[in-house]
Specification:
- The chain is α/β, with parallel strands linked by helices and about 725 residues long.
- Among the domains are: about 200 residues, 3-Layer(aba) Sandwich (Glycerol-3-phosphate (1)-acyltransferase); about 100 residues, GMP Synthetase, Chain A, domain 3.
- The protein has 24 helices and 35 strands.
- Strands 9-8-17-16-18-19-20-21-22 form a nine-stranded mixed sheet.
- A hairpin with a 3-residue loop joins strand 33 and strand 34.
- The radius of gyration is 28 Å and the shape is globular.
- It starts with a helix and ends in an 11-residue tail after the last helix.
- The C terminus is likely disordered.
Length: about 725
């Protein structure tokens, strides 16, 4: 016993010396009691040694006979007790259950192998069966950093170095909780799913969310190296972490003279490298970036500035001239100070450059010294809702909101240094900013910034040229790329994630048949930083937007007239600080519902199945009441997509003097025939109520810069047609 303690001490000293190992949560080990199944993510060959060295006792390690037979593990047998298991043999699981029932502790790696992706691998059901049948507590332990060591299996697949910093977090215990009357296959399925969720939470907990965005970026720079290339734009200029830090500090020296601490500063910039440089320059000196949509027009930008109390906007003269927005600048300057980056660039002196270079050698020190806004719960960024259905509102997100969502998403979509993310979504939108820029940047990936998602011919070619591995887009854009891309252009993509609007079946089938790629659909809102749920390669159900991400909870609020489903209300660390509204400028209104503060009503009607997968039925505002029945306008659009694939459709509910509301379908399908809708509805057993009686053809569907359908413009179009009686109504008898 004494010798084992000495060996434990020896390994602790050795591992701390080389890997600066940090351990937290050991009090949870003491609270776990007896009869405990200890689970951990399997990151490297160091995992067993790390657990042996720091766990207060020496538990039994359960590993497969095949792995135990390897020579590399032979020395480890001298220090620990092994329980050899055969995953394919049910008797092996029963033996482990009997062992733990004797009030023993055992360590098991549910993945069954060391990760080759840097994130969670497939989770085997064996450990969940053991925990369930033994009625054991589950003690999760998160190991972070060892996957970057040379004793991992990531060499040639991602970033590795000799001695990365390793953290070990012992989390509070959990249990498999299943009703006693559920047996057999259904019980195994539920147990396996609960263990999967515990492992996701384990991965989520390994990210430090109590930092600011600038500190998180500095930590990523330390982890992956200052020379790691992380940014490239359409000018083909590449930036590494070191250059991003240096330029952000240099620019911050100039911005500081024009603004005040804590001021909301407007950003009117496209998807180029100057955007993240300016964003982090504001973060460095404690100013709050306020994202302005340059496609929304001067009036809406002015309203946004009043709402967020923005006094100064920074933009680029080259951008304004290239986008032909000079008149926009002139209009804005009547009420707001507008500064072009080219002008302040001329004020850079040699002394300023030298001072910035000096500060960049120890940026953390000067960031903390010069910036009073280092509270993780403070404002980090102000974005605006898309305004697809009404007046945009300011959404205030904290540093913790954004970092929590990064931690939640990385369980499902792992951003690694080996990845290249192609981001053509506008950075003034939460999907483009948080998912397309900040998340991969914190994960060490390279981001290629492209100024517009509408270039359907060039984008697939660039994805091919860059060897991009991750691509975010909306249904509208994905459909456009598929029409122009060569079948080999998208060959390197590992993840294609759709969000911001409903993913249609015809788009999914087109991508699968033409490119062999499965689009993973997610769901989010600006107010949730933005991701609420997402499908992944291990847990994916077609037609749904996936399961809720870790550390979020929800309830369904009943809606009159809707029997199956209701309003989705959510709460979690990624939910915004609050809204800024035009009638209460500068005042943050925290989200709240009848259940209290922190709950956010998404406004979406959903159904959640027994496995936790969420299906979006539509916006609460996008339901029509026809003959006393609630009709989903999203379902009308889905029927149109089934009838006329690869075309664009929008359904509206407009006032009708005789019927209360009238459903109108607007489509770019030439010569639409209502009978075709009826035939598809009949073959798919879809209610007749879904079939619109009025169909309007338009040549081009109005779309917002974010890729969402512009329902405000479409509604005005529909109202105009009805008012002027210039439409051809294709109304046929259903008899």
């Amino acid at each position: 016993m004494k010798m084992r303690r000495l060996w434990k001490l020896f390994f602790r000293v050795l591992l701390r010396l080389f890997y600066k190992v940090e351990v937290t949560g050991l009090e949870n080990y003491e609270k776990a009691g007896n009869r405990v199944l200890i689970i951990a993510n399997h990151t490297s060959l160091l995992d067993g040694v790390l657990l042996y060295a720091w766990l207060p006792e020496t538990p039994t390690f359960a590993i497969s006979r095949k792995i135990a037979a390897k020579k590399i593990f032979k020395p480890f047998l001298f220090f620990v007790d092994l329980f050899e298991m055969d995953p394919s043999n049910p008797l092996s699981v029963k033996s482990m259950v009997k062992y733990i029932k004797k009030n023993k502790k055992a360590v098991i790696f549910p993945e069954g192998r060391i990760t080759v992706t840097g994130s969670l691998m497939k989770i085997y059901e064996g450990p969940s069966l053991i925990a369930d049948k033994a009625n054991a507590s589950i003690l999760p332990i998160a190991i972070e950093g060892a996957q970057y060591s040379r004793l991992s299996y990531m060499k040639g697949r991602g970033y590795v170095c000799w001695f990365p910093k390793i953290t070990i977090r012992v989390l509070p215990t959990s249990r498999i909780k299943i009703s006693s009357h559920i047996m057999g296959h259904e019980r195994r399925k539920i147990a396996s799913q609960q263990l999967q969720d515990i492992m996701y939470n384990l991965s989520y907990s390994s990210v430090d969310k109590r930092r600011t965005l600038y500190m998180a970026m500095l930590d990523a720079s330390k982890k992956y190296g200052k020379k790691k290339i992380i940014l490239e734009d359409v000018k083909r200029e590449q930036l590494n972490y070191g250059e991003l830090i240096l330029r952000s500090i240099l620019l911050s020296r100039l911005i500081k003279k024009q603004t005040d601490l804590g001021e909301h500063v407007g950003m009117l910039l496209p998807n180029v490298n100057a955007f993240p440089i300016f964003f982090f320059a504001l973060q460095f000196i404690g100013r709050i970036p306020t994202m302005l949509n340059y496609t929304s027009g001067a009036l809406n930008i002015k309203r946004a500035c009043v709402t967020a109390q923005v006094k100064t906007i920074f933009t680029s003269r080259a951008f304004l001239e290239g986008a032909k927005l000079e008149k926009l600048k002139e209009e804005l300057e009547k009420d707001i100070t507008v500064i072009c980056l080219e002008d302040i660039k001329n004020n850079i002196t040699c002394i300023t450059k030298l001072f910035a270079l000096y500060m960049s050698k120890n940026p953390g020190k000067y960031y903390s010294k010069n910036n009073l806004n280092t509270n993780p719960n403070a404002k980090a960024v102000i974005l605006f809702t898309s305004g697809s259905e009404g007046q945009p509102k300011g959404v205030v997100l904290s540093h913790t909101n954004i970092l929590a969502n990064y931690a939640q998403v990385r369980c499902h979509i792992n951003f690694t240094p080996a990845d290249t993310v192609f981001n053509c979504l506008p950075l003034f939108h939460s999907f483009g900013l948080n998912a397309g820029l900040l998340m991969p940047l914190l994960g060490g990936g390279k981001i290629f910034l492209y100024p517009s998602p509408l270039n359907y011919r060039n984008i697939p070619e660039l994805i091919y040229e860059l060897g991009a591995t991750i691509f975010f887009a909306t249904n509208t854009f994905l459909k456009g790329y598929a029409h122009y891309a060569h079948p080999y252009d998208l060959n390197t993509l590992d993840y294609v994630i759709a969000g911001a609007e409903k993913l249609h079946d015809d788009t999914m089938q087109l991508w699968m048949h033409k490119y062999g790629l499965r689009i993973l659909q997610g769901y989010g809102v600006t107010e949730a930083s933005p991701v609420i749920s997402v499908n992944n390669k291990m847990l994916n159900k077609t037609g749904t937007v996936g399961r809720l991400v870790s550390d979020m909870e929800y309830y369904i609020k009943r809606v009159d007239g809707i029997e199956n489903g209701g309003l989705l209300v959510v709460r979690g660390p990624n939910i915004m600080l609050g809204y800024l509204s035009h009638n209460k400028p500068g005042e943050i209104q925290a989200p709240t519902t009848e259940r209290g503060l922190g709950w956010y009503d998404t406004g979406d009607i959903v159904v959640v199945d027994e496995d936790g997968f969420i299906t979006i039925l539509g916006r609460a505002k996008r339901f029509a009441k026809i003959g006393g029945e609630m009709v989903s306008l999203s379902a009308v659009e889905e029927l149109a997509s089934l009838t006329w694939p690869n075309m664009e459709h929008a359904a509206l509910a407009l006032h009708d003097e005789h019927k209360g509301e009238r459903v109108i379908l607007i489509t770019n399908q030439k010569n639409p025939i209502r009978k075709e809708l009826q035939e598809i509805a009949k073959s798919k057993h879809i209610s007749e109520l879904i079939i619109p009686k009025t169909i309007i053809y338009i040549e081009k569907m109005p779309v917002l810069s974010t890729g969402k359908t512009d329902y405000i413009s479409i509604t005005k179009l529909g109202e105009t047609y009805l008012k002027d009686k210039t439409i051809i109504e294709l109304e046929q008898s259903t008899n």
